[in-house]
Amino acid sequence: MKILKSLQILSLLFFFVFGIAQNNTDNLRLYDNFEPIASDNIFKTEGYYNWGTSIIKGKDGKYHMFYARWKKEYGFLSWLTHSEIAHATSKSPLGPWKFKETVLQGARKNRWDAITAHNPKIKYFDGKYYLYYIATNFGDKPFTEEELIETARTGYRHPNWNILRVNQRTGVAVSNSINGPWKLLDKPLIEPSGPITTLTVNPAIDKGKDGRYYLIVKGDKPNEKRFIRNQAIAISNSPLGPFEIQEKPVIDYIDTEDMSMWYDSSRDRFYGVFHAHGFIGMVTSKDGIHWKKANEYVLMPKKVKMADGSELIPDRLERPFVYQENGKPKVLSLTVKKGDESYSIFIPIKENKYPVPNKRQIAWQEAELGVVYHYDLHVFDGEKYRQGSNRINPISDYQIFNPKQLNTDQWVKAAKDAGAKFAILTATHETGFALYQSNVNPYSLKALKWKDGKGDIVADFVASCRKYGIKPGIYLGIRWNSFLGVHNFKVNGEGDFRENRQKWYNKMVEGMVKEICTKYGDLFEIWFDGGADHPENGAPDVLPIVRKYQPNCLFYHNGQLAEARWGGSESGTVDYPNWSTFPYISTGTGKNAQKNIYKDDYKLLKQGDANGKFWVPAMADAPLRGYNGRHEWFWEPGDEAHIFPLDNLMDMYYKSVGRNSTLIMGLTPNPEGLIPEPDVKRLKEWGDEIKRRFQNPIASTSGKGKELVVKLHKKTPINHIIIQEDIQKGEHVRNYMVEGWVDGKWIVLTKGESIGHKRIEQFKTVKVGKIRLKVLKANREPQIKKISVYNVKPKL
Question: In whole angstroms, how far apart are CA 421 and each of 663, 664, 681, 785?
């Protein structure tokens, strides 16, 4: 981490160029917009298993849902033999739903759809309703009702199961009315070919802007001995076909099911949602043929929040369907299987009309102060750290790593004494050496003689954080790796040699991220130094891993997402005003960074954008040993004289936390494995001074609107005011003035622009009987969480 100054400056020199990832990238954001469900959002049918929903708004103004159901009497696996498609209605797409009628059943007779009608999708195209569904048959073999019952009760082991499975096909029924009658076609829509084999099931369809119809169906992956499904795309000029399957699959890199697809005209993109092991995911396509992971590839883990604060953890969570209205996603419906019940749930998708923080950003901003510990092999070589050479020259002897007095409790206690609420550890930095027991990175603590190769500093660190009530975070340096020859994400070499090593490196990094996300419990923040770049630019694909395994962890950052932004310097300060809003969802990385960031000495990073569409709050950072001409993120001998004096640290606090930024201070464990005592002492002094000044306000109040008065019991000297907006509702104040009641009249004490989470205003001591906050300009009704008054006396 000399990192940010040199790294970010190097990175941002090339901002004139936009990378692939920033051009035409999708910006549909749903991950944080799923709201808890209440009883009205759950649809069960007595005596039936329910499965898979599809919703459409009718001309009658009601919402119509088509879904699969089958009687419980033959067991859950009778979906293959006895499923039917039912119709329910509601005044809201969220429910409550009321059963109306059975629409389709197995046609029996000697037809392609003789047995079952299942997994429907309802669509309206050019004046007609199309009900897509799947059915099956016994081929040329006759069957009886008793045989179907026996097959259902026996399940997968019954010989008939394989007969039925290979005869599963997708079809469509057509009607002029949402209420039917429905005309059945004499043959299925499509046979397996190209990227799928065996069967064509679980249809999803929409019309593209070119007027053609794009149909997704599932089948088995060809030439695959394992049980893995592919998703294929087929195209037709008519909703009735004929459909031509395209050679390139929609998804072939993961076993997925139950696609639901739509064309988003406002973004000129197709989107598809699916379920996979452990998560509900989303893919996207510009042309309907070439699909890729959406920027929000992991939409949600397979857990559902309930309105009462509890959490529903199903045995199975499948059949995702996104209902849209006027081009805006409104509802995510899913099928829940839990115990001997299966039913449908309808998750509200909120629409944010202006930028607001997600729960991770709120926690991060409310934490206000954190620390980052930099520890790596070169701490032990006794030489001055040189970033340029450290990135390209491996450490000659990694066995020099030998912290004989390692004490992460001491590290974290020092941070707590400073008032830090979270702490971050460099699990890897530019050498590539990992400070934990990695099964995918051989260049890790496993390779050391220290502790017989069994040490795990990440585990020690996390345990210490939990002991002292500090939230743990991890810093992963994946952009540089001198041991493996990785520079700016690119592995050295040429041709196939380089390409194959690049794939191996990316896979290793993704494995490390999964290890960090799954081995150490809940994490507060994951910090990819210098950004992790966008996977479309050849970088490791890290965002989905963090989203899947650490849904409550702040992500910082890559070309797809920045849940915080670097504040533009390593001075521990940000400019004023400093807005939490920003024009881009990501700051980008290197030459692929967003435009305008480099201008005017990183003004956009330092100040944000009052009119920005995204909530991306600022981080101020500095090393504790950054005083008097030095700037050391790692321990170096003889640096005690460069610890910031207390006055400088307080100035930093005012110009970071007091300007709506989260401050992260760099700490330097030494070769013995301890934070040096002078550093520990200064941190304690700093924490004590922050408490002395701001722990006990004279008076406080809160409220809404453009004027707020804080009354004091008597005429009282004051010299500080802290103002906080309720950032859960956004950042609304644009200009304000604070006045004091002095000798029977209001006088101006201070004026300002941005407030955000916290604004500390300091002024000359004045005696007042009350103070008044006047909001001079706001874009919405001001929501003041707290305004507090202080009289900070000089320290004796």
Answer: 11, 10, 18, 20
